[in-house]
Amino acid sequence: MSDITPERGAQNLLTNCAQATAGDRLLIAYEPPEFGYFDADSVKIVSGVAQSMGLFVDTVDVGFNPDKPHLSPELLARFETADIILFLARLGDQLRFSQMPKGKKIIVSFALSREQFGSGFSNGHHDAFMELKAGINEVLNTAQEVRFTCPLGTDVRGKPEMNLDPSGDTSVLRFPMSVFTPVPAHSFSGRVALTFLTGTGSKYYDDYTIEFTHPVLARLDQGRLTGFEGHPTDVARAEAHYDRVSEQFGIERNLVHSWHAGIHPGCGYPWDMRQNYERWGGAAFGNPRILHFHTCGTYAPGEICWNVIDPSIVIDGTTYWENGRFYADRLPGGTEILSRYPCAAGLFAHPDMDIGLRKAG
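Given the sequence above, the corresponding structure tokens read:
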């Protein structure tokens, strides 16, 4: 894909995702870089492109509140003056399943930095990934059986019971679009291989991530966690983690809510995940190398995330994901989508395989 730049990534967001036109009022709600999540350049990049398009741009620092994210009356008043509200802040992700003001285009950015705005993740045409999402949703909606595995021993199967009306997904627009609609887990059973447990970005808590010395298998039975298998020390840590998080928030410990996999081969994570698991969890999940579950709590996204690395996903006998690569051309109409969007086709031909995995040491 030629001419990949941060500015083209911002243009893709504003033109193809927000469908902004000259005269629109854009409010960028941003999180300052000192919180270690969004960088210092993204607001400047998007603002500059927006102004060149004839948009009126305003910005507001919304900070970061890990404990009680909310929309203050002052912030809601600012929202009322805008046509488009762009969150370059975790607040948008924290509240994406909550009530947002009606009649506004509200976008949460999962591109966090100049590097990501200037990568295939942000430059791949937004409409291509919206069409691919719709395609995989339809395949799942009519599927009789889905089975997924991974090199470490994951083996889960079930029949999807999709909810494709708007209540089944968040109504907030996401950029880039990098996952399909979550699949309810209540009809799935098997075992899920895990090398760590981390939060979902819904709430933040101490010991947000625990790593295992050996892979641990979580037993899943019709959407419920029934226990762990593995090294006794690791199993004890996993059980204690679930006890602690579920008690801290007063939520249902063993419910596994839903799962989805990444569909965006441009979604690289060029940093070491261990340096900031919170950032990794909010930015890397759209890569096809990652399938993740929302667990611990009766709501999406729950509070503890299971991450399956390099999944193979077989739907009614067709392998759509193979060892962490998503083959969009195997979707009904997928070849036609890729032919209409050569930028997306180029990403599938040369996927970004860096998801931040570095050897511990």
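The longest helix spans residues 232-249. Try to locate this feature in the token string yourself.
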